[in-house]
Amino acid sequence: QVQLVESGGGLVQPGESLRLSCAASGNIFSVNDMGWYRQPPGKQRELVARINSIATATYGDSVKGRFTISRDNAKNTVYLQMNSLNSEDTAVYYCNAEVWPDGPGGLEQHWGQGTQVTVSA
Q: Please, which pLDDT band fits residue 1 given cuts at 50, 70 and 90?
């Protein structure tokens, strides 16, 4: 029973900013890599940003320089600061986390339910 809950999505105008949050809870010993992926309308899911346990970040080419991923290990939470948003950023954004469970078992992959980000004038 591990849950990822995203928040912060919504409707914004081009050039504005949003910050997404994703909190992991449940049967967790620790959280390894965390990341954000998105699925624009009519397209496949793509990497937005990923951050490992020591805060080394990787970004998709289309968001590099505009988005910043960060994490709070004490809260098992990952954030995505999205600046200079444009219409191409419109998508459902999904949180992903690698979780070490509290007990026996190996590394688990979990996904959030998704949060809608719409950028429109």
A: confident
